[in-house]
Amino acid sequence: MNLFLEILRATAYLASITRSVLYAIWWWKEYKQNG
């Protein structure tokens, strides 16, 4: 139950979600422009 590790894991989890969302938005913009 190391709080620091818990915070690190939560931060990495949120970062991966944020990156996925940003990538999806970017992909959608590119798709709309090209299609």
Automatic annotation (TrEMBL):
> In which domain of life is the source organism classified?
Bacteria
Protein's recorded name: Uncharacterized protein
Organism field: Collinsella aerofaciens
Q: What is the lineage of its organism?
A: Bacteria, Bacillati, Actinomycetota, Coriobacteriia, Coriobacteriales
